[in-house]
Amino acid sequence: MKLIVTGATGLVGSEVIRVALRHPAVTSVVAIARKPILAPANAGSESQTSKLQSVVLESWTSPYPETVIRHIRDADACIWALAVTPSQSKDMDFSDVTTICYEYTISGLTNMTAHASKPFRLIYTSGVTVERDQEKTLPFLSEYRLMRGRLENAILDFAKQHHDRGVEITVAKPGGIESPGREAISAPFTSILETFDHTPTVHLSELAAAMIDQCLHGITKEPLWGEDLVEIGQRALSTEDYLR
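Request: output the structure for the sequence above.
Response:
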């Protein structure tokens, strides 16, 4: 499988690359970012770092240049992990947040599906708090959560409209993400996550492995909630594959 990864410098994207480089069924990993991407230093001895192709993209809302297209051509899947996090969004102009979260994604989906294999599977990394129902009144981060929800609706509509071209999309909606060396999720935040009636946390490696598994074997559910990601990720990972 030839896999495209965006958000490669972030927490989720970098772990997707690490797990993918260790996976024998992933033949190529195309990491698209604003700067060159190196193979993770913690990938381990079983990783095949030669599978990684680093692709620099400067304009994310324009038609992709040929220098990018030649790398994404005939790709089988994409894990889109590029977004502005809720905490980052508080210090940014919301129009910039929308451009990165919404417009980059729609542009990427359009560019990739024009040159990818059939079927082409995209797993969009979102979160349990993101709200698709645009009529809801939300108690916190309303503008941000509704914008991300509009994007989820838009990419799922895109998949329906391009079903005959083999486009398949699902959204991963974890709660908190646990990772070695990362600050533990606070009790108050865990309590908020528990109100959404889904598994409140998922291990970073399980999240990455679950999304890769869906790309490889086919999308089994939409959306993928925390409990789905835990179940698929634990089944897909060996003990040695976990980030430590």
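The mean pLDDT is 95.
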